[in-house]
Amino acid sequence: MKIQIYIFMSLLFIISPLYAASLRVSPAMVTLQNIQKGKIVDLYQETGVRFTIFNDDEISRTWQLNVYPPAVRGQKNDHYKDILNAEWCWLDKNVVTIKPKSYEYVYLFIQLPDQSLDNQELNNQKWMAVIGIDGQSGNTGISLAADLFLFIETYSNHLSITKGGFNND
Predict the structure, then answer these.
(1) Residue of 91, 105, 120, 139 with fewest CB within 10 Å of its CB?
(2) Residue 12, SS3?
(3) Model-level pTM?
(4) Residue 16 is assigned to a structural domain of this protein
Protein backbone atom coordinates (compact mmCIF):
# COMPACT_ATOMS: atom_id res chain seq x y z
CA MET A 1 0.00 0.00 0.00
CA LYS A 2 2.83 2.44 0.85
CA ILE A 3 4.42 1.85 -2.55
CA GLN A 4 1.21 2.77 -4.37
CA ILE A 5 0.84 5.98 -2.37
CA TYR A 6 4.43 7.03 -3.06
CA ILE A 7 4.03 6.32 -6.76
CA PHE A 8 0.80 8.31 -6.87
CA MET A 9 2.34 11.25 -5.00
CA SER A 10 5.41 11.19 -7.28
CA LEU A 11 3.23 11.19 -10.39
CA LEU A 12 1.14 14.02 -8.98
CA PHE A 13 4.22 16.22 -8.52
CA ILE A 14 5.58 15.33 -11.96
CA ILE A 15 2.33 15.82 -13.89
CA SER A 16 0.82 18.85 -12.17
CA PRO A 17 3.46 21.43 -13.18
CA LEU A 18 3.14 20.36 -16.80
CA TYR A 19 -0.60 21.05 -16.96
CA ALA A 20 -0.97 23.90 -14.50
CA ALA A 21 -2.36 26.91 -16.27
CA SER A 22 -4.90 29.53 -15.41
CA LEU A 23 -7.03 32.05 -17.20
CA ARG A 24 -9.03 34.56 -15.24
CA VAL A 25 -10.87 37.48 -16.84
CA SER A 26 -13.08 40.21 -15.47
CA PRO A 27 -15.81 41.11 -16.28
CA ALA A 28 -17.23 38.05 -18.02
CA MET A 29 -20.29 39.86 -19.39
CA VAL A 30 -21.15 43.42 -20.40
CA THR A 31 -24.51 44.85 -21.43
CA LEU A 32 -24.48 48.10 -23.40
CA GLN A 33 -27.67 50.06 -23.96
CA ASN A 34 -28.68 52.93 -26.24
CA ILE A 35 -25.81 52.40 -28.68
CA GLN A 36 -26.27 54.88 -31.52
CA LYS A 37 -25.49 54.38 -35.19
CA GLY A 38 -22.28 55.95 -36.49
CA LYS A 39 -20.93 56.89 -33.04
CA ILE A 40 -17.71 55.28 -31.76
CA VAL A 41 -18.24 53.98 -28.24
CA ASP A 42 -15.13 53.63 -26.08
CA LEU A 43 -16.38 51.34 -23.31
CA TYR A 44 -13.78 52.58 -20.82
CA GLN A 45 -14.36 56.28 -21.55
CA GLU A 46 -18.14 55.91 -21.36
CA THR A 47 -18.46 53.53 -18.41
CA GLY A 48 -15.07 52.99 -16.75
CA VAL A 49 -15.27 49.30 -17.66
CA ARG A 50 -12.27 47.53 -19.19
CA PHE A 51 -11.42 43.87 -19.42
CA THR A 52 -8.68 42.59 -17.13
CA ILE A 53 -6.89 39.37 -18.03
CA PHE A 54 -4.98 37.83 -15.13
CA ASN A 55 -2.04 35.45 -15.25
CA ASP A 56 -1.74 33.62 -11.93
CA ASP A 57 0.92 31.25 -13.34
CA GLU A 58 4.66 31.13 -12.76
CA ILE A 59 5.40 31.67 -16.47
CA SER A 60 4.31 34.22 -19.07
CA ARG A 61 1.16 33.41 -21.04
CA THR A 62 0.12 34.66 -24.48
CA TRP A 63 -3.52 35.01 -25.46
CA GLN A 64 -5.24 35.67 -28.80
CA LEU A 65 -8.29 37.94 -28.59
CA ASN A 66 -11.01 38.36 -31.21
CA VAL A 67 -14.65 39.36 -31.42
CA TYR A 68 -17.02 36.80 -32.96
CA PRO A 69 -20.70 36.27 -33.65
CA PRO A 70 -21.85 33.87 -30.92
CA ALA A 71 -22.57 30.99 -33.32
CA VAL A 72 -18.90 30.86 -34.33
CA ARG A 73 -17.98 30.05 -30.70
CA GLY A 74 -20.92 27.69 -30.15
CA GLN A 75 -22.83 30.21 -28.05
CA LYS A 76 -26.36 31.54 -28.30
CA ASN A 77 -28.94 33.51 -26.40
CA ASP A 78 -32.68 33.30 -26.91
CA HIS A 79 -33.22 37.02 -26.26
CA TYR A 80 -30.41 38.46 -28.42
CA LYS A 81 -29.62 37.95 -32.10
CA ASP A 82 -26.10 37.26 -33.33
CA ILE A 83 -24.40 40.53 -34.22
CA LEU A 84 -24.64 41.17 -37.96
CA ASN A 85 -20.95 42.05 -38.28
CA ALA A 86 -18.40 41.30 -35.57
CA GLU A 87 -16.13 44.01 -37.02
CA TRP A 88 -18.44 46.58 -35.45
CA CYS A 89 -16.67 45.68 -32.19
CA TRP A 90 -12.91 45.69 -31.78
CA LEU A 91 -10.27 45.55 -29.06
CA ASP A 92 -7.21 47.73 -28.62
CA LYS A 93 -5.04 44.61 -29.00
CA ASN A 94 -5.53 41.18 -30.55
CA VAL A 95 -2.60 39.45 -28.85
CA VAL A 96 -1.53 39.97 -25.27
CA THR A 97 1.41 38.43 -23.40
CA ILE A 98 1.09 38.62 -19.65
CA LYS A 99 4.04 38.24 -17.31
CA PRO A 100 3.83 35.79 -14.40
CA LYS A 101 1.62 36.85 -11.50
CA SER A 102 0.47 39.91 -13.43
CA TYR A 103 -2.43 41.23 -15.50
CA GLU A 104 -3.17 43.30 -18.60
CA TYR A 105 -6.05 45.59 -19.48
CA VAL A 106 -7.90 45.27 -22.79
CA TYR A 107 -10.20 48.00 -24.09
CA LEU A 108 -13.34 47.52 -26.20
CA PHE A 109 -14.69 49.85 -28.88
CA ILE A 110 -17.98 49.66 -30.78
CA GLN A 111 -19.19 51.49 -33.85
CA LEU A 112 -22.39 50.61 -35.62
CA PRO A 113 -22.58 51.82 -39.22
CA ASP A 114 -25.02 54.56 -40.15
CA GLN A 115 -26.87 51.98 -42.22
CA SER A 116 -26.52 48.22 -42.65
CA LEU A 117 -25.53 46.83 -46.06
CA ASP A 118 -28.90 45.17 -46.56
CA ASN A 119 -30.79 48.23 -45.22
CA GLN A 120 -31.80 46.27 -42.15
CA GLU A 121 -32.94 48.55 -39.36
CA LEU A 122 -30.19 49.09 -36.79
CA ASN A 123 -32.27 50.87 -34.15
CA ASN A 124 -34.40 48.89 -31.68
CA GLN A 125 -32.10 45.86 -31.89
CA LYS A 126 -30.62 43.48 -29.32
CA TRP A 127 -27.40 41.80 -30.46
CA MET A 128 -24.89 39.52 -28.87
CA ALA A 129 -21.18 39.25 -29.63
CA VAL A 130 -18.49 37.12 -28.01
CA ILE A 131 -14.93 38.10 -27.18
CA GLY A 132 -12.94 34.90 -27.58
CA ILE A 133 -9.73 34.58 -25.60
CA ASP A 134 -7.61 31.67 -26.78
CA GLY A 135 -4.34 30.52 -25.28
CA GLN A 136 -1.37 29.36 -27.27
CA SER A 137 -0.61 25.74 -26.46
CA GLY A 138 2.83 24.99 -25.10
CA ASN A 139 4.67 21.69 -25.07
CA THR A 140 1.60 19.85 -23.76
CA GLY A 141 -0.63 20.72 -26.72
CA ILE A 142 -3.28 21.89 -24.25
CA SER A 143 -4.50 25.47 -24.18
CA LEU A 144 -7.15 27.38 -22.30
CA ALA A 145 -9.89 29.54 -23.75
CA ALA A 146 -12.65 31.77 -22.44
CA ASP A 147 -15.66 33.52 -23.93
CA LEU A 148 -16.80 36.93 -22.71
CA PHE A 149 -20.32 38.00 -23.59
CA LEU A 150 -21.31 41.37 -25.05
CA PHE A 151 -25.00 42.24 -25.09
CA ILE A 152 -25.62 45.28 -27.26
CA GLU A 153 -28.94 47.11 -27.27
CA THR A 154 -29.23 49.85 -29.84
CA TYR A 155 -30.91 53.21 -29.56
CA SER A 156 -34.71 52.99 -29.60
CA ASN A 157 -36.85 55.00 -31.95
CA HIS A 158 -39.25 56.89 -29.74
CA LEU A 159 -42.91 57.18 -30.57
CA SER A 160 -44.93 60.10 -29.35
CA ILE A 161 -48.67 60.16 -29.32
CA THR A 162 -50.31 63.20 -30.80
CA LYS A 163 -53.91 64.01 -31.51
CA GLY A 164 -53.52 62.71 -35.06
CA GLY A 165 -51.72 59.46 -34.17
CA PHE A 166 -48.12 58.30 -33.64
CA ASN A 167 -45.01 60.25 -34.62
CA ASN A 168 -41.43 59.00 -34.71
CA ASP A 169 -39.02 61.20 -32.76
Answers:
(1) 139
(2) helix
(3) 0.77
(4) no
